[in-house]
Structure formats: C-alpha cells, structure tokens
Specification:
By secondary structure, the chain is of the alpha/beta class. 41% of the residues lie in helices and 20% in strands. The strands form four sheets. Strands 8-7-6-5-4-3-10-9 form an eight-stranded parallel β-sheet.
C-alpha cells in the first residue's frame, strides 16, 4: 500500500542488529538516543544522579568515561543503579576495558587501533564475549592514525572510512561481530560524507554524531544539519548530540531531531509562531513556560501556540490542543482540531497544562488518539 504522505517517507538503511544490554540497535529497531556523563565516574553518587536526570529526559543508552581504575571500580554500583545500558568509554588502557566488561558494562567504546597489540585486542574481545558486551568502534577525525594522515594528507572521508574498516577487521579477525561504528568529525561536511561512504561499505549499525559540535545553540544547529541529513537519507541506528551543555540537554535535542523527521517521538511537540505585533498574548514567554511545565509528559502528542488568527486555526486543526490569541485577553482553545472554548490570560498556562495532562491520560488509557500526524514511533 502506498503512503498517504510520501514526502514524509524515510527508507532506513538495512543493517544487522546488535544488542546493547536489553536495547536493540539496528535491524529496524527504533533509533536510540544516547548521551555521556561529565561527572567523575569514580564519584558514583554524582554519576548516578546525572544518569537519573538523563533517564528522565529519555536517554536510551548512557556512556561513562573510564580513564582509571577508580572509575572502573565504581562501575558495578553505577550499572546496578542505572535503568538503561551503560557504555564504558575506553582509550589506550586495555585493562580498563577488561575491568569495565567484568563490572557489567553493556558496551565498550574503543578504538581497537589505540588499545595496543593484537594480543591486547584479543583479550578485550574475550572479555566482551564472556560478559555479553557489544563494542562501539569510535573513529574521530581529531585522532586519526598517523599513517592515514600521511597517506591522505588531512582528515578526509576516505581516511575516516579506511580507519573504520581497519578497526572492523581487527574485531572480525577475532570472530567478534557485535559491534557498531561511528566516524565522527566536527566538520559537518566531512562527517556526513564519511558516514554516507561507510553506510555503503558495511552492514553493521551506525552510531551518528557531529563531535565537538559546540554550545547549546551552535551545537544544536550543527548536529541537526549533520545528523538530520543522514537520518533523512535513512542512515543511522543510534545518535548522540555532542554539546558543551548538560547531558540531559543532549537527550532533548536528540529527540527533537527525531521528532522533526517523524522517526521517533516522546512527549509534547509544540508548534508555535515567532510572534509579532498581532499577538494576543506573549507567545515567547508562554512557550518557554509550557516547555518547562510539560517536561513530565512522555505521551506523544502535540500543542499549537499561535499569537493570532492568521495561522492559528489552521495549525490547531493538526494538533491535539491549540490556543490562538484573541482580543482583550480572550483566546480560543481548540481540542482535537476543533474550536471548543475561550480562556483568559489569567490562568492560561495552568489551563493548557491541565488539558495536556488530561489528553495524555486518555491516550494512555486507549480512550483517545493523538491528532499529531507527524509523530513516528513512540518511545
């Protein structure tokens, strides 16, 4: 059967599926959202507190850095407390990988090339197999091998792809196939080209990211362009938005990217205007307060907030709950796309929140459905 809205269709690349703990990655599974803690992993309490905030934001998988023995010593407590799979980030010290695998990490993030000799890689693979760990090969334009830089002159798509293929071979030589791969760069063009080339060369799941993307605004823009382009092309099985911001913000941005493409959703999607002199209420401040007040809603649904009647009624027809600004502080409320009642400025935010909570409860109970036609697979 043909799609009703073919311009929204995304044909996802077919890949093998691996398991990261109990979370499937690739093979048609929902695209997962990842982040990484920035606390000292050795401080188990601080790390667990941050993991909890990321879980509340919707993180499917969380990575923690394991640079020393104190960090891997804290891993068993962290893994027990976490509700999502924990990935151990390992560089250079292969023994940290062995310790993290034994401590319950669901995945090891390594560059096989900087772990050391083939014998050391073999030890890491044995530990991963024995503990049911997946491995994420992480190639980064900022840390390419010297021989590849000499060969290609600079980081380029071909260099990142060759590095990834070399690392894959190291694992395959030890009969290990539970891996996913990333070829990240801070240059959007470089990262996208590398991922597109790699997607044609391998059948494993791909972990997407624009590394060192920047702060909350700049990094969100770069990540949305890079990750969004790849996802739109059907490439990518798990994503991490790398921001110089709190990790829960990375999770929220990741979901917003997936929501915008209709690939996956979680919580309320807000449609709002930029506001102008026609607005009947302060749109910007209203949206800010609603975004904060509705963070606890995990049910996929939509709310439109439009300052005047130019586009308000049309947008409201496509959303679960809508509000359009009117004169004298009297605004029209739409339910399931239909005009329903008016509300005054005073108490407007609380009124919308109560309507959203009621609608979410109905959707969860199966007595109502969402109007949001752009929603993809629910989280």
């Amino acid at each position: 059967m043909s799609s009703l809205r073919p311009w929204r269709d995304i044909a996802r690349r077919t890949s093998r599926q691996i398991m990261v703990g109990k979370v499937p990655v690739g093979g048609g599974a929902p695209i997962t959202v990842q982040t990484m803690t920035n606390t000292l992993t050795s401080d188990a309490k601080a790390t667990i507190d941050q993991i909890r905030r990321c879980e509340e934001a919707g993180a499917d998988i969380i990575r923690v850095s394991c640079p020393d023995e104190a960090s891997t010593a804290a891993m068993p407590q962290i893994v027990r407390a976490a509700q999502v799979p924990i990935v151990a980030d390992i560089h250079f010290h292969y023994k940290r990988a062995l310790e993290a695998a034994d401590a319950g990490a669901a995945c090891l993030r390594i560059n096989p090339g900087n772990i050391g000799s083939s014998q050391r890689v073999a030890e890491v693979v044995r530990a991963a197999k024995a503990n049911g760990c997946a491995i994420r090969i992480g190639v980064n334009a900022g840390s390419l091998e010297k021989d590849l830089l000499e060969k290609f002159g600079e980081p380029c798509p071909e260099a990142l792809i060759e590095s990834a293929l070399d690392h894959i071979k190291l694992l395959q030589d030890h009969d290990f196939h539970e891996y996913k791969v990333a070829v990240k760069a801070s240059d959007v063009f470089l990262a996208v080209a590398a991922y597109m080339g790699l997607a044609e060369a391998v059948d494993c799941p791909l972990h997407l990211g624009i590394t060192e993307a920047g702060g909350l605004i700049g990094g969100t823009v770069k990540s949305s362009i890079g990750i969004g382009n790849l996802l739109w092309a059907g490439i990518g099985d798990t994503i991490r938005v790398s921001l110089s911001a709190e990790p829960e913000e990375e999770v929220r941005v990741g979901y917003e990217i997936l929501k915008a493409l209709g690939l996956r959703t979680r919580g309320v999607r807000i449609v709002s205007c930029p506001s102008c002199a026609r607005q009947g209420f302060d749109v910007i401040r209203t949206v800010e307060r609603l975004e904060e007040a509705l963070q606890h809603i995990k049910t996929p649904m939509s709310v439109s907030v439009l300052g005047c009647v130019v586009n308000g009624p049309g947008e409201a027809r496509e959303t679960d709950i809508g509000i359009t600004g009117g004169g004298n502080g009297k605004h029209m409320v739409y339910l399931s796309g239909v005009t329903d009642h008016h509300v005054q400025d005073d108490g407007m935010i609380a009124h919308i929140v109560s309507l959203v909570e009621a609608k979410a409860a109905e959707i969860e109970a199966g007595t109502s459905v969402s109007m949001d036609v752009t929603h993809g697979k629910a989280a």
